[in-house]
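Reader question, answered in our methods column.
A reader sent in the components of a multi-part assembly and asked whether the whole thing could be modeled at once rather than chain by chain. We filled in our standard form and ran it. Here is what they sent:
COMPLEX SIZE: four components
ENTRIES:
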Amino acid sequence: MYVTMKIDADPGTYALTPSLGERQAVPFTLKEHSCLYFEGDEVTRLYQVITGVVRLTRLLPDGRRQVIAFGYPGDVIGFPADGRHHTDCDALVDTTLRSFKRSALEHGDEDPDLHDALLRAALREISAMQDHFMMLGRKSASEKVASFLAVITERHGRDLGAYRQITLPMARSDIADFLGLTTETVSRTFTLLRKSGVIALDGVHTVIVLDADALHAMT
Amino acid sequence: MYVTMKIDADPGTYALTPSLGERQAVPFTLKEHSCLYFEGDEVTRLYQVITGVVRLTRLLPDGRRQVIAFGYPGDVIGFPADGRHHTDCDALVDTTLRSFKRSALEHGDEDPDLHDALLRAALREISAMQDHFMMLGRKSASEKVASFLAVITERHGRDLGAYRQITLPMARSDIADFLGLTTETVSRTFTLLRKSGVIALDGVHTVIVLDADALHAMT
DNA sequence: CGACTCCTTGAGCAGCTTCAATCGATGTGG
DNA sequence: CCACATCGATTGAAGCTGCTCAAGGAGTCG
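And here is the structure of the entire assembly that came back:
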């Protein structure tokens, strides 16, 4: 399932190891709810999320919304097409990011390692988006929600005794717009998972996965 | 809407103008219904469609299918993620393709122009896929079919007197799996468009767009 | 001509949405 | 400190869109 677009978040790999040239760029902070860029803006830099979570969205004229992706630590966002951004991007919580010049992707001469890393990130994003197509086009509501929770748990969960715990910084409506559902359906599916003992909720934004096998079986 | 992934099909631009190095690669033919590669195969080459149409698909274990894209002339297919193909690819009709070594994308040293063109193609694909998200997640059946026909018409239509004509080499079930619908719904929507005078059908695979404005209004 | 495949059409149903009301958490002012 | 307003989440009821199941039609190829 598609959530994010990693360069490569393994410790010790290039992407998260600033040391040369562009990599020395000082991380900066994006306040909760503030925007990084808008659809149509010219792309001057790419960004890698270091801490926090951002949201990439597109809008139809009539207000319908699609959340294209959530950007988690390690993920690279802002790939240009025809030099422009094709989504809006804003922060769900206070977020720190590192930025790269667009030319680092488009002209590899200055820093071949960085160029390679950004290219790999772009290719991984294509692959991840293909997964997401399957989910949007061919999965039921509970399969969508289960897949979403399973991926977040695997990639960003914390151990909590025998279980795993995740924090969902986004609203139910963001999850709905990511999965192509309504907030009501997402909410009902959470309730279903809770009542069947697959997950427990600690407040609205914290999910404890009680039965990871059952969750995977639902994807 | 997402159909394909262009390098750039404008006459005279690089992508369709073989002249140097890799570009001298002799186009080859892929027979109707034969496969170019399968999901999981190692990526050794990328391909650009010259004539014909290919189909990129992914399957779920239970047989549900998603058509990821149709590859039309000019489109580049086969971008690797982790070195592997993440879709199956086969030809809907006899198709000629030109191939590029994978290294032409990943190491720009040998042919910088080709590297740039392939990179641009990858970035355009990301953008095009984002459009497709909106369609899969947030559009109704008739909006999906209308969008599909509108894009094909704009990009691959032929003038026919006052109208435009397109050939759809794929089956109704391919369109359904591309749009996240069933064949029955696609068929019914075609009938609806026909009965409302927006399109006419000349056989199953030829569509004449009678009212392009109405078609666009439905997207 | 007959068999096959794909497309179309119909009827009934299910899943998701829509509309609406309530609940719960958070924040603000008196 | 509490009443109240606000916003998001949840729950319920009803309706609609698109799916499922089924049958018949159209084109193709042996």
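What stands out: The CA atoms of residues 143 and 219 of chain A lie 5 Å apart. DSSP finds six helices and twelve strands in chain A.
Send us your own complexes using the same form.
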